[in-house]
Amino acid sequence: MEWQSGLNFSPIKQITGKTKIVIFLTVDAGFRNLLFNFEMNHLRKLVKPFVMSTNGMNQYLQAARRALRWQQEHQRQMKCCRFDTIATHGIYSMQEALDFNQGSIIEPIYMSTSQAYRDAAEMEAALGYQIPTWCYSRIANPSICYLEGVLALLEGYGSEAETSCVATSSGMSAIQSATDPFLAADPDKPGAPVNFVATAQVYGGTFQQFSVRKQQERKAEWRKVVHSGDIAEWESLIDENTRFLYGELPSNPCLSFFDLKEVAALAHQYGIPLIVDSTVATPALLRPIEQGADIVVQSVTKSLATSGFCIAGAVISRKNLVSKINNAPLKADFATYLKLLPNRDNGPNISPMNAVMALNDIRTLRMRMDQTSRSTLKVAQFLQQHSNIEKVDYLGLEDNPLHDLATRYLFLVDSEHDDQYGSRVNRYGHLMSFRIKGGRRKTHEVFDAFKRIWRATDLGRIKSVATIPAISTHSQQGEEGRRLACIPENMIRLSVGAEHPDDIIRDLDQALSVIGGKIVKVSGPEFSAGGASSAGLG
Ligand SMILES: Cc1ncc(COP(=O)(O)O)c(C=O)c1O
Whose CA is nearest to atom 10 of ligand 1? Predict the structure, then answer.
């Protein structure tokens, strides 16, 4: 079966067989581009006759096969490029722009709900997934396909593994899409219990999805790994009814980290996949598939789409993954399976507008992750020596117990090809947490005194943003849930943006001075909305 991210079709059985395709595959590389052009020109000439055609599906199938060959070769060429080039161009080619998109150099936003077909034969082939098609925007859409293509390439960067991607309406729907198919009832063991093993240190929304939606409502038991560095603890929770292992790397907000290769090997030893939420790292710092994971979920909303214009998610998977589920397409190409079947039926698709918003920000991912990581280290070092700080959680700090482990995994991609560095350099991301001496009241006072850092339940933004997880992102899971996830009430989570770090440090310094009794003037409620809101920020 042949699957390809975004535009897909199943085996072409009715093709009449043209030797040209065989020649195309065997010529040396120097002639390939020529042949692609020939293929595309030939394809264009075929378009008009198609409109008039009543010959049935075969012509569409043949044209589809040529288009797929062309796409595959284009992707192969993109795979030879460096990370920044892939992030900038993705799978959108000059040829596609000139031939199909009036030369638009930026990926067009196709807002149409649906695609028109020339005749019944094309429609039948399309809806049967026999030709590249997008059909209907709940299933696929060209703008969405561009996002999926670039994310598949970036998460697969540097790895031999073939990857594919399905984009979703949010990070939470990506997590649901990535996990639910593995919790399906086993027809060979009807009524058998089902469980999954996942770290307790996860984003609050994930905690709720796992504990309420899966465990309480669907009776899929969440077996919590509390000490994720302890491989024996992971293993002790696995049995014959375990469907997958799951972890966040690094975790939000307490920056926990586990040995990815070790946990992936454990999953495979038990014939189950490892799913990793790599939102905080992004593919600029960590590509879990390269390290052995099977599926990656991203809240694209965060650093990937840093401007804060869209909510978006993605599932990226390796082909031919390990699973006990008896479902061949699921194992062959999980992300494409999700896209064409479960997500078609459940409808968690992203909007084309949001897909292009995310695409635009992805182009600058590597440089942003470099800069914000360097700034965050500076901010963390400042906080660490501050007398009003109880503890700083940042993987880049040398005295963090997980520093050495994180140092083995978190690298700025392509730093060895960057004139500025010339060798592999570690970068630890833009997310950190710190704890205020003096408990809940003092913590709220410091938080309320920020003037430059935004108070919001958000991260990965181009602007620095802070939250108190215990009263926001992780409030719903209750005290016991927060204790397991290591989230005390005096913790402030800070996502450092692209401002100069000196200005963030200055803001933190003045906010921390409230503990010494200094009164900081903040805006009154009458200024909380409208254009005059800055008037009281003096
Ligand atoms: C690590 C992590 N995963 C998933 C999510 C959920 O993403 P979204 O808000 O896009 O649904 C978040 C949101 O903060 C997150 O931090």
Answer: 171
Query: Does pTM top 0.90 for this prediction?
Result: no
Query: What is the pLDDT of the chain when averaged over all its residues?
Result: 88
Query: Which of 68, 229, 178 shows the shortest CA–CA distance to 133?
Result: 68
445 in the same domain as 310: no
Domain membership flag for residue 512: yes
Asked which of 142-156, 179-193, 247-261, 386-400 is least confident by mean pLDDT, the reply is 179-193
What integer is the mean pLDDT of 151-178? 97
**Strand 295-299 and strand 313-318: pairing?**
antiparallel
Residue of 246, 279, 298, 461 to test ligand 1 pocket, by largest number of atoms within 8 Å of CB: 279
Which residues, 6 or more positions from 90, have their beta carbon under 8 angstroms from its beta carbon? Answer: 78, 107, 146, 147, 149, 150, 153, 359, 362
Residue 527, pLDDT score: 55
Number of structural domains in the chain: 2
pLDDT surpassing 80 at residue 531: no
Q: Which atom of ligand 1 is nearest to the CA of 459?
A: 14
Q: Which residues line ligand 1 (CB under 6 A)?
A: 170-172, 203, 205-206, 248, 252, 277, 279-280, 299, 301, 311, 313
Residues of the domain holding 178: 12-362
